[in-house]
Amino acid sequence: MAKHKIGWLPGDGVGRDVMDAARIVLDKLGFDAEYYHGDIGWEYWCKEGNALPARTIEMLKQTDACLFGAITSKPREEAEKDLLRPLQGKGLVYQSPILQLRQEFNLHTNIRPCKSYPGNSLNYRDDINVVVFRESTECLYVGIEFHPVPPPVLQTLMEYHPKARRYHDMNPNDIAISTRILTKQRCEGIARSAFEFARRYGYRSVTAVEKPNVTRETSGMLFREARKMAKQFSDIDFYEANIDAMCMWLLKNPQHYSVILTSNLFGDILSKLCAQLVGGLGFGCSANIGEHYALFEPIHGSAPKYAGQYRVNPIGIILAAKMMLDYLDENEMANTLETAIAKVIRDGKVRTYDMGGVASTMDMAKAIAERI
Ligand code: IPM
Ligand code: MG
Predict the structure, then answer these.
(1) Whose CA is nearest to atom 1 of ligand 1?
(2) Hey, whose CA ends up nearest to atom 8 of ligand 1?
(3) For the whole model, what pTM was predicted?
(4) What are the tens digits of pLDDT across the range 30-55?
(5) Is 135 a pocket residue for ligand 1 (Cβ < 6 Å)?
(6) Which of 177, 190, 316, 330 meets the CB 3.0–4.6 Å disulfide criterion with 135?
């Protein structure tokens, strides 16, 4: 029997291309795994009205971790039109499978390392090593939204909050509400993970990023828990920053930052900014970690226009595979893989189109495999 059971979720578009690339390097490493293919993505939305069929969730429950490619999503009206005829008009609503997976498996800790590998001409600077810790089950992502707003909801708000009274004579159709919820438990959890990570991997500081001058309650809770945690980790420097200022500082002096601790939506945005500092979409990777399960993915989307052309850079997913190896305690393999990636980037001979070269997805994967 293989040592590890891995859920294999290529999804849509170039998700499939890059998963093929990831497999080349995992095989070359001698990673002892059995792979379980999962149905997921646009095809299943169209055919079954569900981009994440229940059988896929059941299958994943039998595995130790999974690797995920990318998934297509479209605005509501277009999504409805793509459904098979018999499924149309039934009120089916497309839901992002990645968000469903984070909720279903309680993958609350999203880790996004953004490191500049020397020799990558796309680097903003060569000395960036930022890791974004993003809570990924709460905040504006809880999905508690109203439009139109049911009158009892509005009434209750007005009863409990004076600021809600300004809406008293408005038509419920003209108001939309999305709720941002943070819990003490999750704020403490993400703060602990960030500090533990900093200590374990020798990062100097943790910077908590929020907007406490506006979202006083939610941001306040995250900062409070972060401060408490900082006291337990006196070997790690602790800073607090406002999200807007942080965007400026990250562009100005990204080399000053190491671990960034933040909530879901700010983390979503900041992690894209940080990825661009170290090469952009082709280099971004992400780990979604819960108590009992973990999912690893590149940060790029399915890029339908490049689907099946094996053109896109697979380094993002290969870095995600490296994180998966670390999660599975295959640290030696993880290190070997990262060294191989760094060498190929430093050599600069094999470059995909985003890096100004002509190498294909598979050329890049093979070049990395050769260095293993
Ligand atoms: C990400 C993505 C997702 C998110 C989308 C696809 C829902 O942007 O993983 O960062 O917002 O979390
Ligand atoms: Mg995102």
Answers:
(1) 268
(2) 268
(3) 0.96
(4) 999 999 999 999 999 999 999 999 99
(5) no
(6) 190
CA 241/CA 243 separation, integer angstroms: 6
Q: What's the gap in Å between 137 CA and the centre of ligand 2?
A: 13
**Cα 104 from Cα 90, distance rounded (Å):** 24
Residues lining ion ligand 2 (Cβ < 5 A) are 268
DSSP letter at 143 equals: -
41 Rama class: left (phi>0) / alpha (psi -120 to 50) / beta: left
Q: Closest-lying ligand to the alpha carbon of 51?
A: 1
Sheet holding 4-11, edge to edge: 33-37, 4-11, 65-70, 294-298, 285-289, 109-115, 129-135, 259-262, 205-210, 237-242
Q: Is the CB of 269 under 6 A from ligand 1?
A: no
Interval between CA 30 and ligand 1 midpoint (Å): 31
The structure tokens listed for 326 are: 């670390």
Among the bound ligands, the one closest to the CA of 98? 1
**Strand 129-135 vs strand 109-115: parallel, antiparallel, or unpaired?**
antiparallel
Q: Is 140 in the pocket of ligand 1 (CB under 6 A)?
A: no
- What is the tens place of the pLDDT at every residue in 250-301? 999 999 999 999 999 999 999 999 999 999 999 999 999 999 999 999 999 9
- Domains of the chain, earliest start first: 1-110+285-372 (3.40.718.10), 124-140+180-277 (3.40.50), 145-178 (no CATH)
E strand or H helix at 243: helix 243-252
List residues bridging with 59 in a β-sheet.
none
The ligand 1 atom nearest the CA atom of 271: 10
For residue 171, give the DSSP letter. -
What ligand 1 atom has the least distance to the C-alpha of 110? 9
